[in-house]
Specification:
Layout: H1 3-16, E1 20-26, E2 36-42, H2 45-61, E3 68-70, E4 77-81, E5 85-91, H3 92-98, H4 100-103, E6 108-110
Parallel strand pairs: 2-5
Antiparallel strand pairs: 1-2, 1-6, 3-4, 4-5
Helix pairs in contact: 1-2
Length: about 120
C-alpha cells in the first residue's frame, strides 16, 4: 500500500470519528522522514485518545501497523508513525501552541477532498 493510500485511510478514520480541522501536508520534497503529515484536533483528552485508537484499529484491520506511537499518557499530542505517513492528533490548545502548519509551511498543503468525499457546508 502506498503512502497516499495510507493517508486516505487515516483521514477517513479521523473524519468519520469527528476529528476537527484535519490537515494533510505533503512533505516528501522537504524531508526524508515521511511523505505526509496528517494533523487533526480533538476537543478533549478523551477524544484525542479515541481518535488515535480508531486510526490504529482501522489500519490494523488492513494489516498496517505503526512503527511507533507516542503521547498516550498525556493525550495532549499523540503521534502515530506509519513510516511514510505521520499522524498528529492534538488537543486544541496544544495544536495552537506547536502550530505544525506554520513550521511546515513550505510543505504542500493538500485539499481534504483529494483524500475523502467532503460534504458541502
Amino acid at each position: 500500500m502506498n503512502s497516499k493510500d495510507i493517508a486516505e485511510l487515516v483521514v477517513g478514520s479521523l473524519d468519520k470519528h469527528k476529528a476537527e480541522d484535519i490537515q494533510i501536508i505533503g512533505i516528501r520534497d522537504l524531508t526524508v522522514i515521511a511523505d505526509y503529515f496528517v494533523i487533526a484536533t480533538g476537543t478533549s483528552s478523551t477524544q484525542v485518545k479515541a481518535l488515535a485508537d480508531y486510526v490504529e484499529a482501522e489500519l490494523e484491520e488492513k494489516e498496517i501497523k505503526p512503527q511507533r506511537v507516542e503521547g498516550y499518557p498525556s493525550a495532549r499530542w499523540i503521534l502515530i508513525d506509519y513510516g511514510s505517513v505521520v499522524v498528529h492528533v492534538f488537543f486544541t490548545e496544544t495544536r495552537e501552541f506547536y502550530n505544525l502548519e506554520r513550521l511546515w509551511k513550505d510543505g504542500q498543503h493538500l485539499d481534504l477532498a483529494e483524500f475523502i468525499d467532503v460534504k458541502p457546508e
